[in-house]
Specification:
Elements: E1 5-9, H1 13-25, E2 29-33, H2 36-43, E3 49-53, H3 61-70, E4 77-81, H4 86-95, E5 99-102, H5 107-120, E6 131-134, E7 137-140, E8 145-148, E9 151-152, H6 157-167, E10 173-175, H7 176-184, H8 193-210, E11 216-219, E12 223-226
Parallel strand pairs: 1-2, 1-3, 3-4, 4-5
Antiparallel strand pairs: 6-7, 7-8, 8-9, 10-12, 11-12
Helix pairs in contact: 1-5, 2-3, 6-7, 6-8
């Protein structure tokens, strides 16, 4: 079964990274948005649930909720807020929010609430993903871990997502543009060299310390390919 997609919309990159890490460990696919305009664009796509900060730049969270409900989009919405006043919660629920999480929050509690809302909405919770094995290297999609000889090499969430995309297409050359879209999202405005930097980090964490044969091959002028071994 395909992983459920959670859209995390928050202008705080640390919160997006924290929630992404915990949600991906539970088998969800996660996309991010740093402002209200991006949140609306992505929520109109394939998101199964939206985690939404109220204080977003561009279009605030309440207007995002109001717009989606006016368009009769029934995606479940969990609002993150630093406001504790009852009137803010009442307004959110009246607009169509499904739940509230107050800052500071426990990421484990946030994941539990997300799962609960998905169950209530009738969505099936994603099951842990497969374990890909390439000699001494294991890539565990469910646990979000890359292990060499059984030891977790402790990749950051984006590093793991890049490795998983490449290993899941072992033997296939993937362009930098493809990798940016799949791992960073269609609205990513950075440089393609971001891919090169992350590949360098993967090699430094996986190949070099463990003296593994080269697994990540550069396809000059195009992108990268994961070797089957």
């Amino acid at each position: 079964m395909p992983a459920q997609t959670i859209l995390v919309a928050d202008d705080d990159a640390a919160i997006r990274e924290l929630l992404t890490h915990h949600l991906e460990r539970e088998g969800f696919a996660v996309v991010g948005a740093a402002d209200g305009h991006a949140a609306l664009r992505r929520a109109r796509g394939a998101a199964d649930l939206l985690v939404l900060d109220i204080c977003l730049p561009g279009v605030d969270g309440y207007d995002v909720v109001r717009t989606l409900r006016r368009e009769e989009r029934n995606v479940p919405i969990v609002v993150i807020t630093g406001r504790v006043d009852e009137i803010d919660r009442v307004l959110g629920f009246e607009l169509g929010a499904d739940d509230f999480i107050c800052k500071p929050f426990s990421p484990r509690e946030a994941v539990a609430r997300i799962k609960s809302i998905l169950r209530r909405s009738g969505a099936k919770i994603a099951q842990p993903g497969p374990v890909l094995r390439f000699g001494r290297l294991e890539i565990d999609a469910g646990a979000r871990e890359a292990r060499v000889d059984g030891t977790d090499v402790r990749l950051k969430p984006r590093e793991f997502a890049l490795l998983l995309e490449l290993a899941g297409n072992a033997g296939v050359a993937l362009s930098r543009d493809w990798l940016l879209q799949r791992v960073w999202g269609f609205d990513f405005n950075g440089d393609e060299r971001t891919i090169d930097v992350h590949i360098h980090r993967l090699r430094a964490k996986i190949e070099e310390p463990w003296q593994l044969p080269s697994l990540l091959r550069t396809v000059h002028g195009f992108g990268y390919k994961f070797l089957r071994g």
